[in-house]
Automatic annotation (TrEMBL):
Name of the molecule in the record: Sphingomyelin synthase-like domain-containing protein
A GO CC term assigned to this protein in UniProt: Golgi membrane
Transmembrane segments: 77-97, 109-131, 176-193, 200-217, 223-241
Recorded topology in the membrane: Multi-pass membrane protein
GO terms (BP aspect): ceramide biosynthetic process
Family that this chain belongs to: Belongs to the sphingomyelin synthase family.
Cellular compartment(s): Membrane
One annotated GO molecular function: sphingomyelin synthase activity
Length: 313
């Protein structure tokens, strides 16, 4: 038993080392995209912090979701955050599964390049939207009478740049349309929908996204319009960007990295030779073709054709 465990642990370690080498090479080629996406996450948080200074509390707006869904209350507002945290951590764990499992379909670095592109595009639209119109926040800490509903003018730029992390992220006001939680959730679900392999997990992912939408509204963290706009905006962003971005290589078809430019040129020349010879077999099987009665025959069939012609003469 101990021998089996040791052997499997050795295989796992070799797999992790090999995958790490592969991912480091990919990161060396794509680090600009990853770094740019991560930096924009800070910019997005900075923008959300900035709009909090502009927020003015007021009466909660009329909302059909507030009429249909019972209010959870402050003591149960954590439920939506727990669900979102589970979604976030589950997706992150899935993107790193190539380091552990033998069956792997994607590369971790390339998946995150794609995910960050979706997030950045959606967050740019979100920043433009919530700076265009500031609505009175429906959340408890954003209502009239709360000390956090209005922020005093910052004493220095350093105070703004720090964004009061993490409290400034979890207790923001004014960044309503559209929901940031739904941006992340939908991007994760849509990504797994395309690159995941378990059908049941895909179905569970969509179900959780719907449940989380209701929980966000019931927690009074967002208006219904914030969630509705997120649903169609994120789906459209992913739909159009997915067509523009280069497709990820499928690791189930090949365990190798995408071909380099030199390899692609060599492969193209090889395919052209095949086409010129009129076949699609391995280069080792190339044979001269001869045309008889309008048909292309190889050397073996040519002998048979000559014999038939002599018998018929």
């Amino acid at each position: 038993m101990s021998l089996y465990i040791g052997r499997e642990a050795s295989k796992l370690w070799k797999r992790i080392c090999a995958e790490t080498t592969t991912e480091i090479n990919l990161l060396a080629d794509n680090w600009k995209y990853v770094l740019g996406g991560l930096i924009f996450q800070y910019i997005h948080g900075l923008a959300a912090r900035g709009v909090h200074y502009l927020h003015r509390p007021g009466p909660t707006l009329q909302d059909v979701g507030f009429f249909l869904l019972p209010e959870l209350g402050q003591d149960k507002a954590y439920i939506s955050e727990m669900v979102f945290t589970c979604v976030f951590l589950s997706f992150v764990a899935w993107t790193f599964h190539p380091f552990i499992f033998k069956s792997k379909k994607v590369y971790t670095v390339l998946v995150w390049c794609r995910v960050l592109a979706f997030l950045v595009a959606s967050q740019i639209l979100r920043i433009i939207t919530f700076y265009s119109t500031q609505l009175p926040g429906p959340n408890y800490h954003c209502r009239e009478g709360s000390k956090l509903a209005r922020l005093p003018h910052p004493q220095s730029a350093f105070e703004v740049l720090l964004i009061n992390f993490p409290r400034g992220i979890t207790h923001g006001c004014g960044d309503l349309i559209f929901s940031s939680h739904m941006i992340f959730t939908l991007v994760f679900v849509l990504t797994y929908q395309k690159y995941g392999t378990k059908r049941c997990i895909k179905q569970i992912g969509w179900l959780i996204a719907v449940v989380l939408s209701f929980l966000i509204i019931a927690s009074r963290k967002h208006y219904s319009v914030d969630v509705v706009v997120a649903w169609y905006t994120v789906n459209l962003v992913v739909f159009f960007l997915d067509k523009k971005l280069p497709e990820l290589p499928d690791r189930t078809a090949s365990l190798l990295l995408p071909l380099s430019t030199k390899d692609k040129d060599s492969k193209t020349k090889e395919e052209n030779h095949k086409l010129l010879n009129g076949n699609s077999v391995d280069p080792a099987d190339w044979r001269q073709r001869t045309q008889v009665n309008g048909k292309i025959l190889d050397d073996a069939n040519l002998v048979h054709a000559d014999a038939t012609a002599m018998n018929g003469a």
